[in-house]
Amino acid sequence: MEVIYEDNHLIIVNKAPGEIVQGDKTGDRPLVEELKIWLKEKYDKPGNVFCGVIHRLDRPVGGLVIFAKTSKALARMNEMFRKGDVKKTYWAITRNCPPKESDTLTHYITSTERNNKSYASVTEKKGSQKAILQYRHIASSDRYHLLEINLMTGRKHQIRVQMSAIGCPIKGDLKYGDKRSNPDGCISLLSHRVEFIHPVSGEKIDITAPLPDDNLWRALASDLKD
């Protein structure tokens, strides 16, 4: 577990692809429980340790996840996420180049528990939720493309399903239309950067995730456009 930032109220972790943030039906130990153990040992705390889940990343996605160390921070961060006061920037690798250099995508997303999958439509459907993101094409290699994505809303599998809807599924994402899996079973989507005003201290927090230890990520990042 790689802790990127910590203070008295918040802790930001670089989640590895394959880890789950919160417990699910698999029964695997989630990152929040690992973090409680880490905090208990680091500070030699007796009894239970508070660690609140503020937001989640899909299991095959890596990058920054914010947790709360106090109930005050949890309540305030939840409200900031609800109001859109936390800017989350993702990087994604796709095999197909998007049709425009940059664009705002708006879809209506419905999700099913049966197959744990979301579906995007350009028209509103019963039970759907409006989903908005902005993307920008920032680098390319001979075969792959690096996109920077900002979420305006937070829907289940939003980036994955919206990029698939324009013909650009995330590399390795078999669930949403890519043809080949990545060797480690992850998908090439990274929670790259978070920016917000600290809910207690009021200072500006701007944290960037380290690049995955992968030659393709490094090659694309080294070829970033101005």
What is the fold's blueprint, element by element?
Elements: E1 2-6, E2 10-15, H1 31-43, E3 52-53, E4 62-68, H2 71-83, E5 87-94, E6 102-112, E7 117-121, E8 129-140, E9 145-151, H3 158-165, E10 189-197, E11 204-208, H4 215-221
Parallel strand pairs: 4-10
Antiparallel strand pairs: 1-2, 2-4, 3-4, 5-9, 5-10, 6-7, 6-8, 8-9, 10-11
Structure overview:
The chain has 226 residues and is an alpha+beta fold. Helix content is 18%, strand content 34%. The protein has helices spanning 31-43, 71-83, 158-165, 215-221, and strands at residues 2-6, 10-15, 52-53, 62-68, 87-94, 102-112, 117-121, 129-140, 145-151, 189-197, 204-208. Strands 1, 2, 3, 4, 5, 6, 7, 8, 9, 10 and 11 form an eleven-stranded mixed beta sheet that branches. Strand 10 (189-197) and strand 11 (204-208) form a beta hairpin. The longest helix has 13 residues, at 31-43.
List its traits.
226 residues; alpha+beta; 4 helices; 11 strands; 34% strand; globular
- Strand content is 25-35%
Taking pLDDT < 50 over at least 5 consecutive residues as the criterion, the unreliable ranges are none
Radius of gyration equals: 18 Å
Kindly state the number of beta strands.
11
* Oligomer status: single chain
Largest sheet: 11 strands, mixed
**How many helical elements?**
4
What does the average pLDDT come to? 95
Order of helices and strands, N to C? EEHEEHEEEEEHEEH
The proportion of residues forming helix, as a percent range, comes to 10-25%
Distance between the termini: 33 Å
Structural class: alpha+beta
Query: Which outline best applies?
Result: globular
